[in-house]
Amino acid sequence: MSDAAQRTADPNRVPLLDIVSENRPFNAELLAAIGEVLNTGRFLYGPPVQQLEEAIATKCEVKHAIGCSSGSDALLVSLMALDVGRGDEVILPSFTFFATASCVWRLGAKVVFVDIDPATFNLAPEQVEAAITPNTKAVIPVDLYGRCADLTRLTEIAQKNGIHLVEDAAQSIGASHQDRPAGAWGTVGCFSFYPTKNLGACGDAGIMTTSDDELAERLRLFGAHGMNPRYVHKVVGIASRIDSIQAAALCVKLKQLGRWTEMRRENALRYQQLFESASIDGEIVLPTDDPSGRHVWNQYTIRVPDGRRDALRAHLAAESIGSEVYYPIPLHRQECFAELGYSVGSLPETERAANEVLSLPIFPGLTAGEQERVVDSVSRHLAGKRASAA
Ligand SMILES: Cc1ncc(COP(=O)(O)O)c(C=O)c1O
């Protein structure tokens, strides 16, 4: 049963996401746009691809946007186009999704994990600076949960040291820092249209943004087998294009992104007010809005300190309230990266965050009543803990 059907069957259930209900008012428009692709038969490089690329370039205030198969491929193709490879080092957070690191590893470059700022969950600029060596080729900040990293400081550091800033903006479409959009700061910006993102496709899709004409050509080349013209291969690229069907669906959904983002922002504010009036100050730590930019709230992530997170999550699940831990095992502690030699305690803020974070429902169609139910459930659980400790 879909989240939407379960939500209808059990009005007390609050899912983490409800993509079916979000899309439903636009289903006819989505089907018509997809039908148009079926009619033309141009499943790759069809008109919706160019339309989406132009719309994203305008939205991100860059000269070029180049579609690709996923956010993971956006990162991989970007690093390939920047010639990252053996002997190079790339600095990135460990508190992120796997794809931020796998692209570096796959190209034979050294993955250099650094710690986060505990207040924002994003790369700590001073740690980035300390990790730079003569072999550093790039830094990949992630705008985790929809809040931009400190892109002013990171740009300064990248420029001073002659390294590339590759933005992992997978979670931050529509966000900005100092009035400049995510995706417009770096040498290149990488977005994901994975279905759970603020702008989600009906499958996998991604896009890369840049204002560098030469790099834009290389991004396109590397995502198309390195081939140009036909059957002439200039570099060893991969097959990573955006399908016309996905682009068509995304063009329909892009028209709603501004409104959906406002709804997410309103939901974040409502949580803030509800949690404050529930008087559970200090027992959980609420996320804050971004004073230097526009937070787009892909996730609303609280901290539950002192080893109490998993019990709260189990309590929410028992009351049919969805939640998720993004991410429970930091990348420097993943088995596949063991040979990098990061021990327990090597990135203390990252490890603390992984033990404490809990993301609550914040999707655009979440109702005020559903939010009240979430906050009530959290408060009752914490009150019960208080009573049993007394
Ligand atoms: C921070 C981050 N980077 C990269 C990706 C990879 O994107 P995709 O799932 O589209 O490959 C994701 C999303 O899943 C992500 O959240």
User: CATH homologous superfamily of the largest domain - what is it?
Assistant: Type I PLP-dependent aspartate aminotransferase-like (Major domain)
CATH level 3 topology of the largest domain: Aspartate Aminotransferase, domain 2
Radius of gyration: 21 Å
Please tell me what the overall shape is. Answer: globular
What is the domain tally? 2
Q: Report the biggest beta sheet as strand number plus sense, adding barrel if it closes.
A: 7 strands, mixed
- Enumerate the strands of the largest sheet in spatial order, edge to edge or round the barrel: 1-9-8-5-4-2-3
How far do the termini sit from each other? 42 Å
CATH architecture classification name of the largest domain: 3-Layer(aba) Sandwich
> What are the bound molecules?
pyridoxal-5'-phosphate
Number of helices: 13
Pick out the low-confidence regions: none
Number of strands: 12
Strand content: 5-15%
H/E element sequence: HHHHEHEHEHEHEEEEEHHEEHHEH
- Roughly what is the average pLDDT, rounded to an integer? 96
Structural class: alpha/beta
Task: Report the CATH C-level class of the largest domain.
Answer: Alpha Beta
Helical fraction equals 40-55%
